[in-house]
Amino acid sequence: MAELAERTRRFVSEQVFPIEREIVVDGRPMTDALRLELQKMAKDAGVFGPLSPVSYGGLGLDTRAQAPVLEAAGTSLIGPLALNCWAPDDGNIHLLAHAATPEQAERYLRPLASGEVRSAIAMTEPAPGTGSDPSMLRTVAEEVTDGWIINGDKHFTTGADGAAFFVCIARTEDGPTMFLVDQDNPGVTVGRRMPTLDHTSAPGGHCEVRFENCVVPDEAVLGAVGQGLEYAQVRLAPSRLTFCMNWLGLATRAQELTARHIQRRESFGARIADHGMAQGQLADNEIDIEASRALIHRAAVAIDTEGAASSSARHLASVAKTFVAEAVWRVLDRAVQLHGGLGVCEDHLVARFLVEARAFRIYEGPSEVLRWSIARRVLRNYR
Amino acid sequence: MAELAERTRRFVSEQVFPIEREIVVDGRPMTDALRLELQKMAKDAGVFGPLSPVSYGGLGLDTRAQAPVLEAAGTSLIGPLALNCWAPDDGNIHLLAHAATPEQAERYLRPLASGEVRSAIAMTEPAPGTGSDPSMLRTVAEEVTDGWIINGDKHFTTGADGAAFFVCIARTEDGPTMFLVDQDNPGVTVGRRMPTLDHTSAPGGHCEVRFENCVVPDEAVLGAVGQGLEYAQVRLAPSRLTFCMNWLGLATRAQELTARHIQRRESFGARIADHGMAQGQLADNEIDIEASRALIHRAAVAIDTEGAASSSARHLASVAKTFVAEAVWRVLDRAVQLHGGLGVCEDHLVARFLVEARAFRIYEGPSEVLRWSIARRVLRNYR
Amino acid sequence: MAELAERTRRFVSEQVFPIEREIVVDGRPMTDALRLELQKMAKDAGVFGPLSPVSYGGLGLDTRAQAPVLEAAGTSLIGPLALNCWAPDDGNIHLLAHAATPEQAERYLRPLASGEVRSAIAMTEPAPGTGSDPSMLRTVAEEVTDGWIINGDKHFTTGADGAAFFVCIARTEDGPTMFLVDQDNPGVTVGRRMPTLDHTSAPGGHCEVRFENCVVPDEAVLGAVGQGLEYAQVRLAPSRLTFCMNWLGLATRAQELTARHIQRRESFGARIADHGMAQGQLADNEIDIEASRALIHRAAVAIDTEGAASSSARHLASVAKTFVAEAVWRVLDRAVQLHGGLGVCEDHLVARFLVEARAFRIYEGPSEVLRWSIARRVLRNYR
Amino acid sequence: MAELAERTRRFVSEQVFPIEREIVVDGRPMTDALRLELQKMAKDAGVFGPLSPVSYGGLGLDTRAQAPVLEAAGTSLIGPLALNCWAPDDGNIHLLAHAATPEQAERYLRPLASGEVRSAIAMTEPAPGTGSDPSMLRTVAEEVTDGWIINGDKHFTTGADGAAFFVCIARTEDGPTMFLVDQDNPGVTVGRRMPTLDHTSAPGGHCEVRFENCVVPDEAVLGAVGQGLEYAQVRLAPSRLTFCMNWLGLATRAQELTARHIQRRESFGARIADHGMAQGQLADNEIDIEASRALIHRAAVAIDTEGAASSSARHLASVAKTFVAEAVWRVLDRAVQLHGGLGVCEDHLVARFLVEARAFRIYEGPSEVLRWSIARRVLRNYR
């Protein structure tokens, strides 16, 4: 496993960094063609598909083994795309592997796992629909002969632009239910890409999507009717951890760039690296990075040994997501600060990293909502 | 004075906010034509020129009186431009009012104070030149018959693109010296705009500028030869405070937007405004805002009563700059967080504010350099 | 005023510091005899009674003028006692000056202002009585012929041990009401001193007090019946600020001790004062101190110009109390850290200061309750 | 192992908590007799000696296995004493097991591991001697016929009062060297106990100790002459981790006490546990606790697999010590705050815990010195 992580690290730094530089410095657009090119390179390097089942062409790593590999992938903003372990496809692969029928798996999981297609996840809705609170879900699926009609507005639909299919959650009489909806269904309209700060790393954007009299057959139901939130939970803990692993990689990259930068630059009679305040920030970064890595490992062990839906896995994944999202933000912010004026130039990686990472504290559960759920669990334990 | 601040607040919210929205939401470019249009509106509203001497068409406010007016101006990213109290022109107006000969004042200060032209400040240099450490200055001015020849590379030259003239600092045999260099001097080349994160608020950008055998007459010397750093000091404390006032305004705007947003949105059975964690963040913002306002006032009193170059004014301006830059950043970051997903959309003001504000902790003295100088003063006091 | 503050600073450092050292190092007990000795010294130095009305022998300073004087007093843990500007007498003096009848003023305010006697404030109750929430008040006063009978349990009754009288708040049919109860009233029992962390600075401790069939005459009512909470509000903003001023003084003392200590001690080849991380902490202390001073001044101006019960005075006093209590704590904590092992020895002042100061974030309104009230005001402003 | 941790947890809560309460509430003194009583109870419960080698009557756990057991022990201030895994004996046991000759082991390690005697570690010296910087060591050992003469002053000699022997580090011609010095050596004088804040948990205190013409035989040398710092390093990483495990236990206890307290108390119309700001603090505590636990585990794995003196073990132990010391402090501080007024009463555990824990950020390496060493390692990695 250490070997695979090392190989990934080498692959990303040798083959992905140059392309990342073209994107960040020269403005090369992140297209699906480029994504396929990157994935081809990852396949050739033998590092493609760390999250995907072996039977679908992936490496089939357990969560613990994923951690160092995804951290290595994450050292570049586009490394996780190259390895096919980036949102929302990572979570959808996990979800389909868990809940899809054999027919659904052939049709949706296989091309997704191979990188042939991309997918989207349609959960969040504009106000007064569901944001962090699943009870506010307003998109409705009405049962009709041989199928369902879905109506509702979504936004922040990650990956929607160019996705081959959507995982859409909608209310039914029996409760929230997940549906697989093909991109060419005439009832789906992908609206504008929302101008989110994380534009580099998401080829399909975060889009507004409308489901309008969208008819799907019974076979479009993913898992059991009325169990949509349970499936969302299955998806959630691993998907939060994947995020953590990828973003932690970016923090380690920023730390390396910073450590090198401050050993080259001088001011006030010494290298910046010799100034105590800079050393303090570098050490704070290191502490944040090691604590993140340690928490990810703990949560990964819980997922692997007790299951992704277990109480302890969910708790530790919440704790890890909250801590890592904030720790990565602090690391990137200090990296910018230690780069001085260059740190706020968008053609320097650290500036771009900072801007891209801001949403990580909000997506997949804002820190406040996670803290609330963490607190409730503590209170229950000590009632 | 309270009346002027109130008038400014009304002017900005009624007339500037709509234009700011066009820039942020629709991508309307910030041009000099737009700047002149904004300044015309500010003149009509009687709020133009709070920093400029009365004899040059300004309002001639002392520093204390500037604080609420500039805070009101700063509630929009482009409000300070409208009032002509934005970097680098604010500092250059102050510097010229202090150090220019009558001829220099007529030629440079008058059109600058009226908004007819913009200016630039050419201090920072690429490595291994001067960044925060003035002793590393590498641009050289050599005395020749009737004048000087300037050679050197600058970067982060704020306002350079389209500036009518440059305040350039260069080493001479007698020490660092300031020069006024016309834009059309054939020895000056304005290179690329550096892609800094603060692109909305700076019409002239932060540019690379080359002075190559740039010949200027003796009359181009601003103040006394060899006294360039002393003049830079004169400019520094007021210019740091101006920054603080303007950016504090932006923080108050973000606070208002946030307070309104969380009273409209609901989740988990209550308005976001009713959740204690949101209230805690709102209160932290308020505390940061009030402490910033209080520190700005204290530093302003020191400047007005003891002079901008006095030890106490410089100390308090350093303290205020360090605190306010970090406090504003915290306020904007919490505002983004409380806006949830919308907070990271670039067509929402708070996302844009956050990105624009990052450089404030670096420009005009990075927090670390300021902390170092604050600590040295404390140590001297208690030797 | 600056002269008075300077005189106070000199008085405290020359005359009070040696006695403080005996208390902290040698364990000399803080008795009423010692308090009277200290107050005699303060009277001789012309600095006694900064908060008391001139007609009652005090200096009659307005809030703004109090700030530097009380900060100077606060440089010693027992300086405020010497000047008679320490809780709970400071607040009771203020309250009596505001609400007492002439007879009550002669009987209670005069000896209190002169330092002849001490007083106590009996508000807080054990669960399920009132803590921070005044609506939970359980002590009851029942009207009888010519007077009242008070029944209830209080705790954290500051100053109770040895107090000449109590200001006691109790529920009546017409609402919460304040009563003046003599120490020798047979219906009052002072129980144990609660073993709070702040044992040096409080001669009367924080005690459990029982009112059991405690009969008081009509003249014992302070102010109007049913207006007890309004009077508590009158007392609150000034009393919070007095606290802030006193504790800020302690922070400045710790900063001085630290700055001197780290210039004497060496490690790793340099004075501790030359290490950047130490400088960073010293600068953070200075920023916290200056921001505290600035906020206190702003709140003092609001009290002096708009009244202690005005909305803006209460808001700014809440903001100041929250910030200053936390800032002082941070300053003292950094001072301990920079003293190394010596910093955790109780015979060193900084260790003692840290322990004494902990309650400041809880007394007179815990930070969380204050944040809640600050947030509500912000929300009201932007409804 | 989980069973042993659970057994320890039960032992401590059922048998140690009541005695701890007598100490904290009633002021029962912590004597050696009490220590022996506690250790007898731990032996009966089968949980004594988690750090000691099996051949010396201990449980012989590896570092990973120690973590949950010591965390359970640490839920009481005196739990680690009961199990014999508390400073300085824990580190001395580790050191002797590593470096003692068979004769030394019989004479010193055996009675120490069994709890029959206590020991002390004499490293730190008063200024200008060694504090955090080992190069400043001033205590000298001069070689004479058949032995050595030690001269020097130590302070903060943990455990000295009542210790059977001292591990003393002194300079020799060949470099720093460790010596085993019996308590009854006439050349040793134990001076005053330093009045440190952590008085509950240390039966032997932190003392001033003088070595004056202290003659010891050659057999008193521990390990090789001139290798004292290397042995100190061997002791250091495990001893830092032991500290972390024990103190983390205290943090978990405070968290439990807090969670229970805020579910019992009401204010402002709800249980404190229902207020969002309280939930946020509880969640922050949980995150700090889980991150501490995760970092301890990572460092323990490094010690067990790569050795206590390996670069990665030392690095991770430094990171863990820095983070955990600060995290525990934050947890205890929030626990105090959530207890309100009761939180600052010394007869409540959380107040006592906070005061006891302050030194943890200084002993065994102040956070600043650790950050410096962490930063240097980062810089070396990315040169």
UniProtKB/TrEMBL annotation, chains A, B, C, D:
<dbReference type="InterPro" id="IPR013786">
    <property type="entry name" value="AcylCoA_DH/ox_N"/>
</dbReference>
<dbReference type="InterPro" id="IPR006091">
    <property type="entry name" value="Acyl-CoA_Oxase/DH_mid-dom"/>
</dbReference>
<feature type="domain" description="Acyl-CoA oxidase/dehydrogenase middle">
    <location>
        <begin position="120"/>
        <end position="214"/>
    </location>
</feature>
<dbReference type="InterPro" id="IPR046373">
    <property type="entry name" value="Acyl-CoA_Oxase/DH_mid-dom_sf"/>
</dbReference>
<keyword id="KW-0285">Flavoprotein</keyword>
<dbReference type="InterPro" id="IPR009075">
    <property type="entry name" value="AcylCo_DH/oxidase_C"/>
</dbReference>
<comment type="subunit">
    <text>Homodimer.</text>
</comment>
<keyword id="KW-0274">FAD</keyword>
<feature type="domain" description="Acyl-CoA dehydrogenase/oxidase N-terminal">
    <location>
        <begin position="3"/>
        <end position="116"/>
    </location>
</feature>
<comment type="similarity">
    <text>Belongs to the acyl-CoA dehydrogenase family.</text>
</comment>
<dbReference type="InterPro" id="IPR006089">
    <property type="entry name" value="Acyl-CoA_DH_CS"/>
</dbReference>
<dbReference type="InterPro" id="IPR050741">
    <property type="entry name" value="Acyl-CoA_dehydrogenase"/>
</dbReference>
<dbReference type="Pfam" id="PF02770">
    <property type="entry name" value="Acyl-CoA_dh_M"/>
</dbReference>
<dbReference type="Pfam" id="PF02771">
    <property type="entry name" value="Acyl-CoA_dh_N"/>
</dbReference>
<dbReference type="InterPro" id="IPR037069">
    <property type="entry name" value="AcylCoA_DH/ox_N_sf"/>
</dbReference>
<feature type="domain" description="Acyl-CoA dehydrogenase/oxidase C-terminal">
    <location>
        <begin position="226"/>
        <end position="379"/>
    </location>
</feature>
<keyword id="KW-0560">Oxidoreductase</keyword>
<dbReference type="InterPro" id="IPR036250">
    <property type="entry name" value="AcylCo_DH-like_C"/>
</dbReference>
<protein>
    <submittedName>
        <fullName>Acyl-CoA dehydrogenase</fullName>
    </submittedName>
</protein>
<dbReference type="Pfam" id="PF00441">
    <property type="entry name" value="Acyl-CoA_dh_1"/>
</dbReference>
<dbReference type="InterPro" id="IPR009100">
    <property type="entry name" value="AcylCoA_DH/oxidase_NM_dom_sf"/>
</dbReference>
